Amino acid sequence: MSSRRVTMLFVAALALAWPWLPEFTVSVLCTIGLYALVAAGLVMLTGIGGMTSFGQAAFVGLGAYATAWVCTSPIATAALGSVAGPALLPWFGLALGLALTFLVAWGLGAITLKLSGHYLPLCTIAWGLSLYFLFGNLDFLGGHTGLGGVPPLTIAGISLASPRLLGVLIWAVLLLTLWALHNLLDSREGRALRALKSSRVMAESMGIATARQRIKVFVLAALLAAVSGWLYAHFQRFVNPTPFNLNIGIEYLFMAVLGGAGHLWGAVLGATLITLVKEQLQDILPQLLGSSGNFEVIVFGLLMMLVLQRFADGLWPTLARVTRRGMTPASRATVSASAAPLPQRPLPAPGELLLETDHVSKRFGGLIANNAIALTLKAGEVHALIGPNGAGKTTFFNMISGVDHPSEGEVRLMGQAMQGRPARAFAKRGLARTFQHVRLLGQRSVLENVALGAHRRGRRGWWAAMLRLERAEEAALLAEARRQIERCGLADHMHTPAGSLPLGQQRVVEIARALAGQPAALLLDEPAAGLRHLEKQALAGLLAQLRSEGLGILVVEHDMEFVMNLADRVTVLEFGCVIAEGTPAEVQANPRVLEAYLGGADDWEDAA
Predict the structure, then answer these.
(1) At CB < 8 A and 24+ separation, what contacts does 84-91 make?
(2) What is the pLDDT of residue 331?
């Protein structure tokens, strides 16, 4: 039985049992659904996007207070009364809550998401507390007393005053949200989101606007929290600041982490466990320890510590491993043979200048990493950049790919000055690169990693992905990824997690990922490191084929035999300065190279 079928059976069982469940159980399930909606947003934000937030309860409060004010304020009801009847007021409240949450989240995200490390979660605590106290100090929101008399929701003339009826809406919204988020993650935009957590530098080099993606997922999580708050207000029919304080924000994060921060259904599992455990502790502990004191908070905290100590990745991965033994393996991403090809970029003519650096220098304080380097790369050639460790090769690579910016000098790509432009602008102009230290999505398949390289060749956005309207484009992206994987000799590992491959094959995955972007200029940082002899020969054959197709290839490599048999031109760096440039034969005969790079002619002969 497949996991999809199990999910459908769970939903069907819940739907069939719903009319017969006790009222208390229905109320608990409603609470679980409201919590899971917020936790699902935190899975996207924290587990997928790599950003920790303790302030989601404040966004729940925005959604709740917006609809409560619209439905109970004489000013709002008088202004909207002429436009719509009382039954539509909650829907105006939803629109107001989403609008306010969008504006607040976008503004806060634009400021706080520039922070990293522990500063980001600390900042979320700060604005979470600020919004909580704001709710309690505004008189028109009822102060700390709150707003009562919130009307029930009405749909098609049916009042949802009963938790049993409203619970259907809550779980329908939750299930539709999980479906949409699953679709988003199973798309081009989902791969971009997964790249935010592991390596933003790599993602930018693939053409992904990481800052924009971070704000978008932050706003998405906030909007889901606001929808939960809207439903909560019409479920409780009363709103005050208490349910939106920092403690509740921490509980929401616990739900996502306990269930499994990287798994959407982990949000439901975490919300269920924490809700049920709290209910049981509130019943059992007063009988054992007396009614005075909040002992359930202490025991709850200790239980969370023990569970997270044992299940660091959350409970959902463990549950999935146990249940997977008797289930059909999850279906792999299918690659349609009939997918329409992606638009092709016309490659430059052989000999055309692709990349040029004019006296590029890089200083780190008093240290000169690169000093006045002038280098060119032409279409249809392999240009090797060699030098001893610490010569400044990787620093130079970072400057000519937009990862870092020169202190002096100019980098021109396809004739355009690129000073101060981000790495994604270099990718858009036709440059792709690999990294000295491999940067892959280790838990994702080789196919998904390579498809990430073709990100900028797609156009469909989040809404299309959530509603599965971009399936034709996604099929084309996966087909292009498959073509590059087969070209690089990794067809047998297409569905293998990239992190489980040997280091040498991981480097080849990076090359396939770079080729998926259809670059004109290809920068390879130590591509042969970790490869066996036959694998190096296969790589050399691939690079020779790419050269014949018109690509310009700039390669950093320490394997002299590999370099000298492949390169058309060689540039030698020492202490950040160019000490020689020419054909392989000219460089090998240069006495300064022999002395400075290898220490003598005998060493060169041994190496080459």
Answers:
(1) 86/151, 87/154, 87/157, 89/151, 90/151, 90/153, 90/154, 90/230, 90/234
(2) 52
Decide: 83 and 255 in contact? Cβ < 8 Å.
no
Token pair 């000055």: residue: 417
Pairing relation of β-strands 353-364 and 521-525? unpaired
Residue of 263, 264, 270 whose CA lies nearest to 303? 270
CA 267 to chain centre: 17
The answer to whether 51 and 264 are in contact (CB under 8 A) is no
- Please tell me the predicted confidence (pLDDT) of residue 42: 94
What are residue 372's phi and psi, to 5 degrees? Answer: 50, 55
User: d(Cα 70, Cα 141) in Å, to the nearest integer?
Assistant: 10
Do 524 and 463 form a contact (C-beta atoms < 8 A)? Answer: no
Residue 436: predicted pLDDT: 86
Given CA atoms 486, 488, 493, 498 in this order, what sign does their dihedral have? negative
Where do the H-state alpha helices sit in 113-143? 119-137
User: Which residues are within 8 A (CB) of 422 and not within 5 positions of it... i.e. 6 or more apart?
Assistant: 204, 402
pLDDT for res 577: 87
pLDDT at residue 279 in the model = 80
pLDDT digits (tens, 9 = 90+) for 530-546: 888 888 888 899 999 99
| Residues of the chain with confidence (pLDDT) below 50 | 600-608
Instruction: Record the pTM.
Output: 0.90
> What pLDDT score does 602 carry?
46
User: Please, which residues have CB within 8 angstroms of residue 248's CB and are 6 or more apart in sequence?
Assistant: 57, 60
Give residue 91's Cα distance to chain centre.
32
Q: Which of 249, 241, 243 is nearest to 42 (CA)?
A: 249
**Sheet strand arrangement including 353-364:** 367-378, 353-364, 408-413, 416-417
3-state helix, strand, coil in the chain (%, to 5): 60, 10, 30
The H-or-E segment that residue 327 falls in is: none
* Chain segment 591-603, per-residue pLDDT in tens: 887 776 555 444 4
Contacts for 29 with CB less than 8 Å, ≥ 6 apart: 21, 167, 171
Cβ distance 373 to 391 under 8 Å?
A: no
CA distance 38 to 268: 10
* Contact call for residues 541 and 514 (beta carbons, < 8 A): no
Predicted pLDDT at 600: 46
Please say whether the beta carbons of 572 and 581 come within 8 A: yes
